[in-house]
Design brief:
Number of helices: 11
Helix content: 25-40%
Distance between the termini: 43 Å
Strand content: 25-35%
Radius of gyration: 20 Å
Length: 325
């Protein structure tokens, strides 16, 4: 195999810029097919992105002989079913985060991939972005010394009631939880990517704003390797002027701070603050897709395994549903 021929299941907003165009920009990769139930929106997407094949049925895309790999970009409740169907059809799988709505579903996906010797990658694309690679490099060279603690704050203002009407992100059956389940996978994946295994974790969740049925506020703690303590505070019902997105790493020689959904690193050491700016890429997922293609072609390692992701999913379940370890 010299080129990975892709099909996308679920060509919604996330695929317009973050991922979709990248499949044609990465070497040895081409986007061959897209699937969406709404035929008018499907045809429009396929036309604008020059995709040869379009399908209103996922099974037809998965079984098409000119598709080698499937990117699953649907709401999380059907990630498991589509991944299992694709793996059984001998297709390689790249699945959006969260990997599924429950740890149990993730484990079933992992077990089948192992059983069939299939290839399964999870789209935690921040692992391949320059800002986060720089943070990892600073940590590996012990630039701020021995790491003592990590604090993460994600405070976002509540939307209007209309915003949540028919919004799958606050529907437990479709998303697994509230907005925490949509955004925290990126954040917790970085915690584990930077600092290794979680030795223990616990948390609690509740609904502060009353705008929808599931949690809008989550508090959690993790004891990581090397006695590093993590504390996370998520709230999606904050007053307008109190929004905050900060990942703060504290060492015995200084601190590193950055927004997970931003483009600046602030390093404080010896009483001096330094800022590093990173230009956002045109397609956020392109770097990880490139690594994914290399892995699918048998020329590199899996850039984000199911096993990597299952640990962060366990932590999310513990924080929200009390399945603590």
């Amino acid at each position: 195999m010299e080129k990975i021929r892709w099909g996308i299941i679920g060509c919604g907003n996330v695929t317009e810029m973050k991922s979709g165009p990248a499949f044609n920009k990465v070497s040895h990769s081409i986007l061959m097919g897209v699937m969406r139930r709404n035929e008018a929106l499907l045809k429009d997407y396929a036309s604008r992105h020059n995709v040869p094949y379009s399908f209103t049925n996922a099974t037809d895309l998965i079984n098409h002989p000119e598709i080698d790999a499937v990117y699953i970009a649907t709401p999380p409740n059907v990630h498991e079913a589509y991944a299992i169907q694709a793996l059984r059809a001998n297709k390689m799988v790249y699945v959006e985060k969260p990997m599924a709505t429950t740890v149990a579903a993730c484990l079933r996906m992992q077990e089948l991939a192992n059983e069939l010797n299939g290839k399964l990658v999870v789209a935690h694309y921040r692992r391949a972005l320059p800002l986060f690679l720089k943070v990892k490099s600073l940590l590996e060279e012990k630039y701020i010394g021995k790491i003592k603690a990590v604090h993460l704050t994600m405070h976002k203002k509540a939307g209007t009631p209309d915003y949540y009407t028919n919004n799958w992100r606050v529907d437990k059956e479709l998303a697994g939880g509230g907005l925490f389940y949509d955004l925290a996978p990126h954040q917790l994946d970085l915690v584990l990517y930077f600092f290794g295994q979680a030795l223990s974790f616990s948390g609690k969740a509740f609904n502060k704003g009353g705008l929808y049925a599931v949690e809008d506020t989550v508090l959690g703690e993790i004891l990581l390797e090397n006695n590093i303590h993590f504390y996370g505070d998520w709230c999606f019902a904050i007053e307008d002027n109190n929004e905050k997105d900060e990942f703060k790493i504290m060492g015995d020689l200084g601190t590193i701070r950055f927004p997970v959904f931003g483009h600046t690193i602030t390093i404080e050491k010896n009483g001096v603050a330094e800022q590093l700016e990173f230009n956002p890429p045109m397609h956020n997922q392109q770097n990880l897709i490139e690594k994914c293609v290399t892995y699918f072609l048998g020329q590199g390692e899996n850039p984000c395994t199911a096993n990597d992701t299952i640990q962060s999913m366990r932590i999310m379940e513990a924080f929200v549903y009390g399945n603590n370890k």
